[in-house]
Amino acid sequence: MLLAYLPVFVAVRRRGQASPRRLAAIFAVFLYVAAVVAATVFPIVLHPGGERFADHYWWLVIRWIPGDVPVTDFLLNMLMFAPIGLVLPLRWPALNSVRRLAACALALSCCIEGTQFVLWVTLGNYRMVDVNDLISNTTGAVLGLLLLRRVRADQEAVQARM
After folding, report:
1. How many domains does the chain have?
2. Which of 49, 59, 63, 150 is deepest in the core (most CB within 10 A)?
3. Enclosing domain of residue 28
4. pTM above 0.70?
5. By three-state DSSP, how is residue 130 classified?
């Protein structure tokens, strides 16, 4: 992750935008993305050729039934995507809409689930593709946005009193 961050660090410094606050924010985003990738893609466990398909067909890795998930998994997925609802609207104000942010979070979640599916089909990595992950990730991002709105409203109320 540090190697991926280094070119960004150099580019930001060359542009003269290298405030410690900005560099810390960029590093935090890189750290978050690395944590999500680590939690959703890795470890990649390889299984030799026909062994992975001997008793598993590709459609068996897809869980289609909503609500058929342990509560802790659902909550952890929500927690994983809550920062998206907090950070993206700050960077791109157009995503301050619940509908737009939900669509963005759903698209990001579909990318993760699609990556897991492709890794299963190509490498035999046993990661399930679950509709509940799509639901919980999107819900987490929307809750993050609602939390951001609440914090902003509280800040405005405090400033109005001063």
Report:
1. 2
2. 63
3. 1-40
4. yes
5. strand
